[in-house]
Amino acid sequence: MLKRERQAYILHQVNLHNKVLSSNLSQEMNVSEDTIRRDLLELTGQGKIIKVHGGALSHSFSNFYTPVNNVYSYAHKKIIAEKAAALVKNGMFVLTSGGTTVIELARTLPHDLRATFISGSIPAIVEYMHHPNIEVIVIGDKVSKSSKITVGGEAISRIRQIKAELCFLGINAIDVRHGITDNDWDVVQLKKAMIESAQKVICLSISEKINSFQPIKICDVKEIDMLITELDPLHPVLQPYADAGVEVL
Amino acid sequence: MLKRERQAYILHQVNLHNKVLSSNLSQEMNVSEDTIRRDLLELTGQGKIIKVHGGALSHSFSNFYTPVNNVYSYAHKKIIAEKAAALVKNGMFVLTSGGTTVIELARTLPHDLRATFISGSIPAIVEYMHHPNIEVIVIGDKVSKSSKITVGGEAISRIRQIKAELCFLGINAIDVRHGITDNDWDVVQLKKAMIESAQKVICLSISEKINSFQPIKICDVKEIDMLITELDPLHPVLQPYADAGVEVL
DNA sequence: CGGGATGTTGCGGTTTTGTGCAGGATTTTC
DNA sequence: GAAAATCCTGCACAAAACCGCAACATCCCG
Q1: Which residue of A has its CA nearest to B57?
Q2: What is the pLDDT of residues B203-213, one digit of tens each?
């Protein structure tokens, strides 16, 4: 059997079944596993397949991009994401809400991080899936089109069963007097449940949202543990929050 | 034997068998392998064949196996998606698995369709979300990186609570003797649960996967209600399935 | 008809490619 | 944390490709 012929067959199998095992192929074609391994390596180099331990996967499947569309205050959110990403250590269980800042955090996570992320935000899940060493747990329920997150009683009762180490909350408005507020009833219920289910709650917010408020209350400022903005922690606008016992980063 | 005559013969052989070996040809025509090599080189220069180490391959051979689009057999999957999309009516509850064919179905659904789709496939969910009138229910659990679908006991017990009208199953291999089979244990469990939870099970498969099988069994052919391929329903390869009581479309 | 130009083929030697194997490193799995 | 599976690296060897050359055939034109 010719080399190219063999490689074409492998490609065919991968495309057909999305996955092949080296041991399997070597037996089918009567060549050593070493040869198969070299074929897979070559096909990977050509970008035709994705080689993994023990075999190969189809490429077409994992190839859906999510372009960085014009995210408001992108530069600020990037700074916040980097500060937040540094807090996640190997082995942690992390609960996250939705929102563009959290999605940016998902993109920013180091490639070699080994942790478990739990979320109901579809765009965030898509980003987590791109990281090879991150386990992703999806909170199921009905998808809210406006926030692209699963909401409802089912989602809340699932969250209640969890006790995560960290919880990253992308927030919409924060104010010392009114606490953390939002404008979507379902999302508020969800965030409340998340706060209950985490040992440490970290809020992510661009400074513009600080000292603003919205109709529905999530919780008081003192119930959160940390606040991350793009500003320097010593910036005067953050002082009231530090005074209220929130760690500011 | 003249040069032209020899080359014509080689071309004929390549087109006939999709592959020739230099050693073989040199013996058949009683010329040195060097001469054959030079012939192949010339034919390759004319774009008539593809020369490889040890022989030559026909063009159709490598074209056949190399996906032109990102998605393998895109055109075929598009046809299947259109046939399937026509079956979904307003108000229906539809359960779907993962796989590129199902994702294509999600893209193909008419814009004004009002229905509820339930799935654990992240790429499919992303597509459903683009439709303004479709309600999306996410089945939560741990995400399997290879199949981009949520798998596990939690997912299965959620599916069990559902009774959907339709279930679209992208399948990996189908065979009258072995039934419907797959190569991923977790995915098989999920698909089994889906079959139980739907009134009507519709399998989507490109014809290439017909009469092939994989290590793990999902169910017998008679347990599904409909089979959709890109072929005409009267195509002989589909006859055995129609005979087994499956509606072929 | 002759002789040079051109084209084709086979051969010997060298280089490149493809394959399998042994070992040790690495990863996965239980 | 040890056993098993899979990987990587270097090596050996065979098969194929390549290169230059010589032998022969063919053609062309005076």
Answers
A1: A5
A2: 999 988 899 88
